[in-house]
Amino acid sequence: MTTKPASQIDPAGRSPRLTWLPDPPVSPDMQEQFPYISRAYVILEDHFSARPDVFVGGEGYLCYSPSDVPNAPKPDCMVAIGLEIPPAEITESNGYAIGEIGKPPDFVLEVASKSTGRRDYMEKRDIYAGYGVAEYWRFDHTGGRYHDTALAGDRLVDGIYVPIEVTAGADDVVRGYSAALGLELHWYDGTLRFWDPGTGEYLPELTEAKAQRDAAIAQRDVATAQRDAAVERVRQLEEELARRQSGE
Q: Pairing state of beta strands 201-202 and 191-196?
């Protein structure tokens, strides 16, 4: 029997609503996949950080019931939107049990690797369709050596996956639109980026987001210093005026 970690028990001794799922085995190609998986997770987690009803996770079992774990897949990245259960509870459960959470993920992404590539675009399409995952995307940093193509997506229509239109432009960017995320997925030179049509910009990566936040903090500090200096100057002028008036 797997023992739940201490963090799974609240101070009153009650267990959470979700069953804790065991760690899945590590992929033999994880060293190759990890940079792409972690980048996608960080970008999407930051993008949806202000939404308390959105869960972003991955690398845990996706199943309908905890009893299905032995045969369950472990998506590299998944997003569920419109949740009634706090995302933190799902994170602590170490996986995603659809029957307990109440809805399947809206978006699943698999990153290609030598050992999992063929299963990603063959077997997992049927598995995720059966689970009711609204969109299933596949990214191959090699351009198609492990998957059937560099970037591909499927949208669930009447229980069957229908290919999402993916185009290759003259700029060498392969792109497709995810209605589930409201974002475009772009493959360029072996890198996966997320484009926000609303802002006309890419979602920032970790280093870019940190630089943007540091710049915003610096601008705020400058504005605060300028305001404080202006207030101090007004105070000095008022004191000077008061002295002159008292000397008359």
A: antiparallel
**Same domain, yes or no: 32 and 148:** yes
Dmax over Cα atoms in the chain, in whole Å? 93
Written as six digits, the tokens of 164 are: 């999402």
Residues 22-31 have pLDDT tens digits of 999 988 888 8
Convert the pLDDT of each residue in 143-155 to its tens digit: 999 998 999 999 9
Neighbours of 46 (CB within 10 A): 15
Q: How far apart are CA 138 and CA 237, in angstroms?
A: 66
198 Rama class: left (phi>0) / alpha (psi -120 to 50) / beta: alpha
Which domain does 180 fall in, by range? 6-203
For residue 139, give the CATH number of its domain: 3.90.1570.20
Amino acid letter, residue 100: E
Give residue for tokens 């699943």: 108
